[in-house]
Sequence to fold (98 residues):
Amino acid sequence: MEIEGFTSFSFQCNQPFSLRKFQYFLDNQLPSSVYRAKGILCFEESEITHVFHLSGKRFTLEDSDRNRERKNKVVLIGKDIDHGTLEKQIEACISSSI
Fold:
């Protein structure tokens, strides 16, 4: 969906992310044109799911107190973002040790 250049990008997968790879994505690859993101994430390094919020360059990752299915679901909102590049970068966060 696009409104005046603003778009949203959704990503889902059944495999856990590597926490190190996801942190690298946030620190080094996330475009500055992504203003907001939220999601439910699971990591190979943790048995629980986590609630993820991003606003600007600040983000929080909180433990979920609900018993959720171990899936990753994230939505990013920004202006003129390249969906193909974002998809490749987020797919690279998937743990390779499964």
About this structure: Residues 12 and 73 are 4 Å apart (CA to CA). Residues 19-29 form the longest helix (11 residues). The chain has a mean pLDDT of 91.
